[in-house]
Design brief:
The structure holds 2 protein chains of 2 kinds.
Chain A lengths: L8 H9 L5 H13 L7 E4 L1 H13 L11 E5 L26 H8 L3 E6 L33 H8 L6 E4 L6 H7 L2 E4 L20 E5 L2 H11 L29 E5 L9 H16 L3 E5 L7 H16 L18 H12 L2 H14 L5 H21 L5 E5 L15 H5 L6 H6 L3 E8 L5 E8 L4 H15 L11
Parallel strand pairs in A: 2-3, 7-8, 7-9
Antiparallel strand pairs in A: 1-3, 4-6, 5-6, 5-10, 9-11, 10-11
Helix pairs in contact in A: 2-3, 5-6, 7-15, 9-11, 9-12
Chain B lengths: L4 H10 L6 H18 L34 H5 L18
Classes of the chains: A alpha/beta, B mainly alpha.
Chain lengths: 485, 95
């Protein structure tokens, strides 16, 4: 039999259902792949023995009616997993073993899958290149000098390298979509509130949202269906009926109105990104969609707004790491205050410290109105831009990122240049709406590039449908040579 | 506006993160370039704009004030860097 891991999740599920492959053989194949891909550094920890036990249990009593029957999955190490170490890419959680399971991972397991391991990520999901992880940077399977994107860099790398059939990440400002774009894979940031935040290590609570990262749109629909749903334990969870995204997937997009925002054509954008956008427009037009020029006038203020709102929320969320109840504690410190200060200084990395300091400053007495309140007002304007546009269109098409994957170390000395990577992804988080990054082509170095489809709140099905039609007509194939094994 | 070293030390104190002098230098440079970027927002007049405080068109749910969990002291203490049988242990606070 051919490589059983070099396929889409949907094909693998079919193979399990038709008994072409057992869950045990599938799990063993992934374990073999993971063991030969240590160079990529995609995993923080693995749970092979548990996974093999679960696979065996499945094979002895299979239930093929589940959405993810007997499927091993690795997930970002930001999701708390019961009795399995969860680090969030940080030294301060290097010994944290949750006594509970996050709701989204529990949903995945309830649909028949089980944990294969925990994937590396930027520390507390703060980063766009996976270089801020305490557990070392992750390599992009596309090329040994390239970052896999971030913060869900272990997830994108593992997925593109066939180390997991699908995975999940979190997206606060682009952390699913940008790594998907850098690795030629599909990534979806759902509507804020569609997937529970309960049990996910918090970064910026008004922006954080978990979502699927997959090889195909169909896979994305299957994963979203499996992980989403109302959760009493998340106060911002949306209470609505569960959708059958995969069953309802349609590739007819005739008559849909696609908005093209002029503000997404930024200075110094590589020609190839622009050409790819043109190609995307043509594909959708040929499929019968109508292209409509729109304006989202406050786009350029999204990143500055984000760099007030996100650090402010982070400084508050990360106040809990004090070395008392869990996590790392410094051996130094004569008194309680000094113990806190040393613990946090030794436990957090540079980027996390920077953001905590920004957040602390913008929330501090005398500065709140000038920064945080101002940012909340601009956030309103950004949301209104989208609300106004969606009165006349169905979805928006933009590039996912202003460039393809950059080199390791290229942007680490200049935080602002790193932040600019998220220029096309951040507005969506501020507005709480869903967006999909789908692989669409390569640049002149052969590195993948993605396009982004933005929908209105809870319109995941529509953007998945457009993505589905696009995927069938785009002709993109992710050709990754397995140079690491 | 620019952040000087003293200000950064003060903010670090508020955030309970000890920062040594060598680090203050690079932090000052980084934070000033980030704030310069952030302050683009001042170009916008937002006098008549309501701040966005919730992204959802729903108010937070309330729940009954009743115990739904409990008797998990052991589980909770298990992850503590230092504890005795019933308490988290911290450096001496009161002489």
């Amino acid at each position: 039999m051919a490589d059983i891991t070099n396929q889409s999740l949907n094909e693998i599920i079919e193979n399990v259902k038709t008994k072409k492959v057992s869950s045990t053989d599938l799990t063993k194949a992934y374990i073999k792949n993971i063991e030969s891909a240590k160079k990529l550094n995609a995993f923080v920890s693995t749970t092979f023995d548990q996974a093999l036990d679960k696979a065996k249990q499945f094979d002895s009593k299979p239930n093929f009616d589940q959405l993810l029957p007997g499927i091993p999955l690795a997930v970002k190490d930001l999701f708390c997993t019961e009795n399995t170490k969860t680090t969030a890419g940080s030294n301060i959680l290097n010994n944290f073993i949750p006594s509970y399971e996050s709701t989204v991972t529990k949903n995945l397991w309830d649909n028949g899958s089980f944990l294969l391991g925990k994937l590396n990520c930027d520390e507390f999901a703060m980063g766009s290149s996976n270089e801020t992880s305490h557990y070392g940077n992750v390599i992009n399977p596309v090329g040994d000098q390239l970052v896999p994107g971030g913060s869900s860099g272990g997830s994108s790398s593992a997925l593109a390298a066939d180390l997991t059939p699908a995975t999940i990440g979190t997206d606060t400002g682009g952390s699913i979509r940008q790594p998907a774009s850098f690795t030629g894979t599909v990534g979806l940031k759902p509507t804020y509130g569609l997937c529970s935040r309960w049990g996910i290590v918090a970064f910026a609570s008004s922006l954080d949202q978990a979502g699927p990262m997959t090889k195909t749109i169909k896979d994305c629909a299957i994963m979203l269906e499996s992980m989403s749903g109302f959760d009493e334990k998340d106060s911002t969870s949306i209470n609505k009926k569960k959708e059958q995204y995969s069953k309802n997937l349609k590739d007819n997009i005739k008559g849909l109105k696609i908005g093209i925002p002029k503000e997404y054509r930024v200075d110094n954008m590589p020609k190839e990104v622009d050409e790819l956008w043109e190609k995307g427009k043509k594909i959708l037009k040929d499929l019968g969609a109508q292209l409509i020029d729109i304006s989202l006038p406050h786009t350029k203020y999204a990143l500055p707004t984000y760099y007030i709102v996100a650090p402010a929320e982070a400084s508050s969320n990360l106040a809990r790491y004090d070395g008392v109840r869990y996590g790392y504690r410094s051996k130094q410190g004569k008194d309680l205050i000094e113990m806190y200060e040393k613990t946090r200084s030794e436990g957090f990395g540079d980027e996390v410290k920077r953001r905590i300091l920004i957040g602390t400053y913008v929330l501090s007495s005398g500065y709140y109105d000038a920064y945080y309140l101002k940012a909340q007002k601009v956030r309103q304007l950004i949301k209104k831009d989208f609300d106004d546009s969606f009165k006349k269109i169905d979805a928006i098409l933009t590039p996912s990122t202003p460039s393809s994957a950059f080199k390791i170390g290229e942007k680490t000395n200049d935080p602002v240049s790193m932040y600019l990577n998220d220029i096309f992804t951040v507005p969506v988080n501020l507005a709480g709406i869903p967006a999909l990054s789908l692989p669409a082509g390569v640049d002149n170095q052969g590195h993948p590039l993605g396009l982004q489809l933005i929908g209105k709140a809870l319109d995941e099905q529509k953007i998945l449908n457009i993505g589905y039609a696009f995927e069938k007509n785009c002709g993109f194939k992710n050709e990754i040579k397995k140079w690491w094994s | 506006m620019s952040l000087d070293k003293e200000k950064i030390k003060h903010v670090a104190k508020l955030a309970r993160i000890s920062v040594d002098d060598a680090k203050v230098e690079s932090l000052t440079k980084d934070l000033n370039s980030i704030f310069k970027f952030i302050e683009q927002l001042n170009e916008l007049n937002t006098d008549k704009v309501e701040p966005l405080t919730s992204i959802l068109n729903q108010s937070l749910r309330s729940r009954k004030d009743e115990i739904s969990d409990g008797k998990i002291r052991e589980k909770i203490l298990k992850n503590s860097p230092k504890e005795n049988e019933e308490f988290f242990v911290v450096p001496k606070v009161v002489e």
